Amino acid sequence: MVFVNNRDFLFTPVMDYTIPAEKVAHVQIGNNAEHALLVLTKTGYSAIPVLDAKYHLKGLIGIGMITDSILGLERIEYEQLADLKVNTIMQTDLPTIKTTDRFQKALDLLINHTFLCVIEEDGKFAGIMTRREVLKEFKKYIYTSF
Ligand code: 2BA
């Protein structure tokens, strides 16, 4: 990536920083909570996107949401995991950015979110933009500019 002057990076396309969909761990909307917990545990991520069969973004599922949904009065009711569908416990009010958006918008949102889902105009999931990728780019930029 080449920046012509100090502010140009704010206007670079978000796709320059996006981890493509095929490299992003996800679950399908019809999966149960047991499967989601398995994917989250195996990948080591605390939250991942939820997609439908057509690869449209539907929400986010995290370990905390799953635990909360099976929290009984006195214990965690693990036996409920198989019957709970991801779509009943996932977070649906999530910030997203479009493939056509500029980096500046993503930067603002990444202050409060560890990653952002990137979607195409038709809602199809394109990938994620993470704080890590952005920090890596900043590091490269700072080290090569000064
Ligand atoms: P977390 O899972 O809470 O991870 C926080 C940070 O810990 C990550 O920051 C990364 O630096 C490190 N980390 C966690 N699990 C890792 C792993 N399996 N391999 C390498 N590093 C790992 P970011 O890379 O900025 O990611 C921010 C958030 O984006 C992650 O939060 C996770 O929710 C999501 N994420 C990142 N990469 C993903 C992927 N390939 N598939 C699905 N979700 C991803």
What would you note in describing this structure?
- With 146 residues, this protein is of the alpha/beta class.
- The protein has a single domain (7-145), classed as CBS-domain, CATH 3.10.580.
- Helices cover 30% and strands 20% of the residues.
- The chain has 5 helices and 7 strands, in the order ββαββααβαββα.
- The chain has helices at residues 33-43, 63-69, 86-89, 103-109, 131-145; strands at 19-20, 27-28, 47-51, 57-62, 96-98, 115-119, 125-130.
- A 4-stranded mixed sheet has the order 1-7-6-5.
- Strand 6 and strand 7 (125-130) form a beta hairpin.
- The mean pLDDT is 92.
Q: What would a concise description of this structure say?
A:
The protein has 146 residues and is of the alpha/beta class.
Q: How would you write the strand order of the largest sheet?
A: 1-7-6-5
Please identify the top-level CATH class: Alpha Beta
Derived from helix and strand composition plus strand pairing, the structural class reads alpha/beta
What Rg do the Cα atoms give?
Answer: 17 Å
Small-molecule binders: ligand 2BA
Task: Summarize the main sheet.
Answer: 4 strands, mixed
- CATH topology name, in short, is CBS-domain
The residue fraction in helices comes out at 25-40%
CATH architecture: Roll
- Poorly predicted sequence stretches spanning 5 or more consecutive residues: none
Alpha plus pi helix count: 5
Order of helices and strands: EEHEEHHEHEEH
Using DSSP, what is the number of strands? Answer: 7
Number of domains: 1
Mean pLDDT, all residues? 92
Shape call = elongated
* CATH-level-4 superfamily name: CBS-domain
For the terminal residues, how far apart are their CA atoms? 16 Å
